[in-house]
Amino acid sequence: MILITGGSGSGKSAYGEKRILEAGEMTRYYIATMEVFGEEGRKKVERHKKLRQGKGFITIESPKDVGREKVLEMLRPDGQKKAVLLECISNLTANEMFGSSFEEGSEPGRRTEALAEIIQLLENDDAIEKMIAYYQKQEVEKQNEIVALSSAVVNHGQIHESHRSRIEKDFFRIRFVGVDKKYYNTDGFEIDLFSYVGTMIKVSALKNVGTTLRDLFIYGDDNEHSLRLGKIGKLVCVPASVFVHDTPGVETRKIGWHNYYNRRNQLYILKEYFPLRYFINRFFKRYILDISILSKNTSEEKKLFKTAQMDALKNKLGKHPVYKPGFVIKEK
Predict the structure, then answer these.
(1) DSSP label at residue 197
(2) Least CB-packed of 38, 203, 215, 256 within 10 Å?
(3) Are 62 and 71 contacting, i.e. CB atoms less than 8 angstroms apart?
(4) Are strands 189-191 and 158-159 parallel, antiparallel or unpaired?
(5) Rg (Cα) of the chain, in Å, rounded?
(6) Which has the closest alpha carbon to 317: 180, 213, 193?
(7) 237: cis peptide before it, omega within 30°?
(8) Mean predicted confidence (pLDDT) in 242-267
(9) How confident is the model over 74-85, as pLDDT tens digits?
(10) Does residue 31 contact residue 60 with C-beta atoms inside 8 Å?
(11) Could you tell me which residue, 300 or 101, shows the higher pLDDT?
């Protein structure tokens, strides 16, 4: 078995095909794992098909579950020479990890964005190598304490602080605050909360606390996971490892589905993981600002925020039947 690694668009597929062709006459299989979203995805698939033209590959479309019986039957030893090119592990991993989190009817752009995050991390060799180098430099005792490593996240050339946060609180108030940029001049610093963007988690830690809480659906699921992981070990950001994640600012977004999930899930996290006073304080503060007669929000916006807060209070999680991905309030 040969593993071929490299950055996105670096020629991994062409090199793999070349190696198989050089091995001589045999039955050649190409397992294509990419799920196609948008024009860019279609162009990439067409480019790969043209690369394979005339090379004698039998293509098996398998975005998930490449070990299923139908695929195994084709590849089962039968006395003939065979070669298999799996294209590619990063796509397959993304589909297996995130495929079922975005059900049918989900906003295609958001699903593509989520898949892109894991694919970019897997293909960003430099970011991964620098996290591993930091880990290997630590004493064994410190290594055993670390359960997750995170890159610095750069958004349009600037450190995006909110991806790596610490918890600040007094008796009544609690805040999740992005770590100050001054800490990014160090070799590594501990955090309380991460986003999944540019983050690696130990398999042993996942076996201990579990994976993402799927009932949160989206927004805040990484914060909740951070809190569970933080109970058994340390979360560390490695500034030398940089993950570029260019996204639009929140001010460009209209009120819609993301506001519902963000509000509901953040309140749920406060209620489940911290003393009740923090939940009560946040609940009534946001009620006054976003829902009451004092709020400047429209009636539809008030309804969305009220639904989110009441769902958090009643532990009604999962995908909402109305506020599905893509929902946007048009009333102004």
Answers:
(1) T
(2) 203
(3) yes
(4) unpaired
(5) 23
(6) 213
(7) no
(8) 83
(9) 667 777 888 888
(10) yes
(11) 300
